[in-house]
Design goal:
It contains 20 helices and 15 strands. The protein is α+β, with helices and mostly antiparallel strands. The chain has a six-stranded mixed beta sheet. The protein is globular. The protein binds protoporphyrin IX containing FE.
Length: about 500
């Protein structure tokens, strides 16, 4: 057990060798960290599974962490973690680290700025392609999570990795079915792998999780370069990464495929539950439904969806989606309630860290600095009744996006961080918000939807995701829906 040195933060060694406080932390990180914060203040160190994590819990001090770029490293931890779970090469090693430095910026270059429009247009087509395959004009019941995953997994996958050539998939015969069947299998594999991820994050080798291991390898098979290169409409992100990894001669084909698996996971693992919560909270709140439906109707009307072109797919620009502030607020509120990401940096050197309060603490080389924004998202001083869903929490009195939130009478710079912040901030965040907006818009346009049992007590989250992002619900819930024969609501007779 390590001893606390002078000027170091309070230290929680726990009483179990190696594990430290891992069990208490893993059971419910939010409650555990809150209780330590109450006792020891805004900064403290916990031993978790053999490593030392110094938690910075004061949101005003987050900027001080982000300013420590020289002393605190993000890549080392992120690449080490990703290598462990996805099984790709060690890109921290000298033989790869030079070339990998050129690969990382591809995220920002292909997921942000003007190129985003193309990604959004493809996603719009793909969501509608999946919805239009549906023929449930009579009421059907399905798990809400299943409904969301079925549509969003396939649409998101095809948007990034392109569509397989149907003639090749079906041996030249069938139309349509093989692509979706192969997507359904990929979705099952994705869930089998993703479910085991928290345990792998805690250190369990994937080989002890045979089902997850097989699922990971099956997914990687689909992402071999020779197969991806045959696909139509590859995203710029995947195309550029294929070119870059092809230049790394040391990597074999399966090793390259595993690097694409990281992208598949990053693009789906948080988006699926975030979409689930956005739709769930919207359906539960009559006020949210009314406001969202009015916004969707307005935008559809503006983009010319008239009775003459009802059979044509809905097309919305990025600007139109950006202007959908009610949906934006619903999504941000759902993210606030369900996000439990942990942000981690590793100290390159011994250094002194100065908190916003002016207090100084000594940080040891090799220790991890951790931020857990869920503590801020659930702080009643910042968000009144923090466990309640308020669809317009992120709208001001003029209906614009609200950005002023306060603690101790001071305005917060960081008040909502489901996507992290600083150097490691999620590069896919703009795409993610847009694709959830597209999903909500299109499901409101194409379906009548209601929860089977609206009076059921609110779903709770499963709080054991080891800081890996958006928490899934503890269980699924039944959704009733039927297609509306492609008629946008503003063109329907009042119901
Ligand atoms: C609601 C959906 C999403 C949420 C909540 C989310 C959240 C996050 C978070 C918390 C991180 C790590 C930040 C950190 O460690 O500080 C991250 C990283 C990342 N995300 Fe997202 N994400 C979402 C969707 C997406 C999508 C759709 C994509 C891609 C198309 C994507 C691509 C990535 C990538 C590539 C990284 C790693 C960045 C790096 O290594 O620098 N994410 N995301």
């Amino acid at each position: 057990f390590r001893k606390r040195q002078q000027d170091e933060p309070p230290l929680m060694n726990g009483w179990i060798p190696f594990l430290g406080v891992a069990l208490e932390y893993g059971k419910n990180p939010l409650e555990f960290l809150r209780s330590i914060q109450r006792e020891y203040g805004d900064i403290f160190t916990c031993k978790i599974a053999g490593k030392y994590f110094t938690f910075v819990t004061d949101p005003f001090s987050y900027s001080a962490v982000f300013r420590q770029g020289r002393n605190l490293d993000f890549q080392k931890f992120a690449l080490g973690f990703s290598r462990k779970v996805f099984g790709h090469a060690d890109f921290n090693a000298p033989m790869y680290s030079g070339s990998y430095r050129d690969i990382h910026p591809i995220f920002r270059q292909t997921l942000q700025g003007p190129v985003l429009q193309q990604l959004i247009s493809t996603m719009m087509e793909n969501i509608q392609m999946v919805i239009r395959r549906d023929d449930s004009f009579n009421w059907v019941t399905e798990g809400l999570q299943r409904f969301v995953d079925r549509i969003m997994f396939e649409a998101g996958y095809l948007t990034l990795f392109g569509k397989e050539d149907e003639a090749l998939v079906s041996g030249g015969g069938g139309r349509g079915a093989p692509q979706w069947l192969s997507m359904r299998q990929a979705m099952e594999d994705f869930h089998a792998f993703d479910k085991a991820l928290p345990e792998m994050a805690a250190g369990l080798p994937i080989h002890l999780h045979l089902k997850a291991f097989r699922a990971r390898e099956a997914l990687a098979q689909k992402l071999h370069h020779r197969r991806l290169k045959r696909n139509k409409c590859l995203s710029a992100l995947v195309e550029r990464r294929i070119q870059a990894f092809d230049k790394m001669e040391e990597l074999d084909e399966h090793g390259k495929a595993r690097t694409h698996l990281c992208i598949l996971w990053a693009s789906q693992a948080n988006t699926l539950p975030a979409t689930f919560w956005s739709l769930y909270y919207m359906l539960r709140s009559p006020d949210a439904m009314r406001a969202a439906q009015a916004e969707v109707d307005r935008v559809l009307r503006e983009s010319g969806h008239t009775p003459e072109n009802l059979d044509k797919p809905v097309v919305l620009s990025k600007d139109q989606l950006d202007g959908m502030l009610v949906l934006g607020s619903i999504i941000e509120e759902a993210l606030r309630l369900s996000s439990a990401s942990i942000m981690i940096r590793v100290a390159n050197e011994h250094f002194t860290f100065t908190l916003d309060s002016g207090k100084m603490v000594a940080i040891r080389k090799g220790d991890h600095i951790a931020m857990f924004p869920q503590m801020m998202h659930m702080d009643p001083e910042i968000y009144e009744n923090p466990t309640e869903f308020k669809f317009d929490r992120f709208l001001d009195e003029n209906g614009q996006r609200k950005t002023d939130f306060y603690k101790n009478g001071r305005k917060l710079r960081h008040f909502l961080m489901p996507f992290g912040s600083g150097v490691s901030e999620c590069p896919g965040r703009f795409f993610a918000i847009n694709e959830i907006k597209q999903f909500l818009t299109l499901t409101l346009c194409y379906y009548d939807m209601e929860l089977q049992d609206p009076a059921m007590p609110p779903l709770t989250t499963d709080c054991t995701r080891a800081g890996l992002g958006i928490l899934p619900p503890k269980q699924d819930i039944s959704l009733r829906y039927r297609l509306r024969r492609w008629v946008p609501t503003h063109l329907q007779a009042p119901r």
